[in-house]
């Protein structure tokens, strides 16, 4: 693993910002990823307050250390070589509350849990999220959606920290939410909290919708294996899963990664796959679909980090 020249200095600085147990050196990121993939982070830090987040961002700027924010990695693949610099997880930011007809959720909370809180409070509008495995922050990052709904439909505003460490409250419009996109990565925003505007509803009716969506998800998606969810964006006029299925790719793969036999749009970590295995399968799928149908499949999943050094 490539090392920064001032490792100990950066470690000491991080430990003055947050508790020492919140700072780890050389931590394997696959332990924290939904996909169970990824090499080591130079520094893995889990701040416990907004002030700590701001200070860590400012430290990274001052020391010119690379900085990466991670959710639970449900739509992310990290290279086997890991990630240099500071990797921040907001898993401690996981509170969810109600205010009026809104649900306020911190970015490290699961979007599934936000939808369940809305159900408990008899608020409708977040049912679509009941099966999305990512965090609230990750859901905003990519304007997550399912079954005809998306974050854009109900988000009022988000509290973020920018690249300079400043705290901002931005409206949904200011985040440029589109199909599986936002301006959050380009602007370098760190989402801390989201407010979803919902409407009063009937508990039994909301639960019936969520139960139906959960059944559809569990019956169609390969939840028995780690994966990064839907790998490819929907190409105009087609369905990615159908193209992959019609290309005869289900069950095919490299190493421990293969195209799911249950849902062709998923690549599963079936047997201790490496990121290299995963990426080979993605390329195989893209090349085969292009050759057979002339359709370019665009990745929805993000890939971060360093490729491993050659032995």
Write the layout of secondary structure elements.
Layout: H1 7-17, E1 23-28, E2 40-45, H2 50-63, E3 67-70, E4 76-78, E5 83-89, E6 96-99, E7 102-106, H3 111-120, E8 123-124, H4 136-141, E9 145-146, E10 149-150, E11 155-161, E12 167-171, H5 184-187, E13 190-197, E14 199-200, H6 203-220, E15 227-230, H7 240-246, E16 253-254, E17 257-259, E18 266-269, H8 275-293, E19 302-304
Parallel strand pairs: 2-5, 3-5, 4-19
Antiparallel strand pairs: 1-2, 6-7, 7-13, 8-14, 9-10, 11-12, 11-13, 15-18, 16-17, 17-18
Helix pairs in contact: 1-2
Account of the protein in words:
This is UDP-N-acetylenolpyruvoylglucosamine reductase. The active site is at 180, 230 (proton donor), 300. Belongs to the MurB family. The two termini are 12 Å apart. The chain is an alpha+beta fold and 311 residues long. Helix 1 packs antiparallel against helix 2. The chain is built from eight helices and 19 strands. It has three domains: 7-89, Uridine Diphospho-n-acetylenolpyruvylglucosamine Reductase, domain 2, CATH 3.30.43.10; 96-206, Uridine Diphospho-n-acetylenolpyruvylglucosamine Reductase, domain 3, CATH 3.30.465.10; 222-304, Alpha-Beta Complex (Uridine Diphospho-n-acetylenolpyruvylglucosamine Reductase, domain 1). A hairpin with a 5-residue loop joins strand 11 and strand 12 (167-171).
């Amino acid at each position: 693993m490539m090392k920064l020249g001032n490792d100990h200095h950066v470690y000491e600085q991080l430990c003055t910002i947050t508790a020492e147990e919140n700072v780890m050196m050389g931590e394997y990121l696959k332990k924290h990823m939904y996909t169970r993939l990824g090499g080591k982070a130079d520094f893995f830090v889990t701040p416990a307050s907004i002030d700590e987040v701001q200070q860590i961002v400012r430290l990274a700027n001052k020391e010119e250390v690379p900085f990466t924010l991670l959710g639970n990695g449900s739509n992310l693949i990290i290279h086997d070589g890991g990630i240099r610099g500071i990797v921040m997880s907001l898993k401690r930011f996981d509170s969810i509350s109600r205010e009026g007809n809104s649900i306020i959720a911190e970015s490290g909370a699961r979007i599934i849990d936000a939808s369940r809180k809305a159900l408990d409070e008899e608020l409708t509008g977040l049912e679509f999220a009941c099966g999305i495995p990512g965090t609230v922050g990750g859901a905003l990052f990519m304007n997550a959606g399912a079954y005809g709904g998306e974050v854009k439909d109900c988000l009022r505003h988000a509290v973020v920290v920018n690249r300079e460490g400043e705290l901002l409250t931005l409206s949904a419009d200011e985040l440029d939410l589109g199909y599986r996109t936002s301006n959050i990565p380009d602007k370098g925003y760190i989402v801390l909290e989201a407010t979803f505007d919902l409407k009063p509803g009937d508990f039994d009716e909301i639960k019936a919708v969520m139960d139906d969506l959960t059944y559809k998800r569990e019956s169609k998606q390969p939840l028995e294996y780690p994966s990064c969810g839907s790998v490819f964006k929907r190409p105009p006029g087609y369905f990615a899963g159908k193209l992959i299925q019609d290309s005869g790719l289900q069950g095919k793969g490299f190493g421990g990664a293969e195209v799911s036999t249950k849902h062709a749009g998923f690549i599963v970590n079936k047997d201790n796959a490496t990121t290299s295995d995963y990426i080979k399968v993605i390329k195989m799928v893209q090349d085969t679909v292009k050759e057979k149908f002339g359709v370019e499949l665009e990745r929805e999943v993000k890939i971060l980090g360093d490729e491993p050094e050659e032995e």
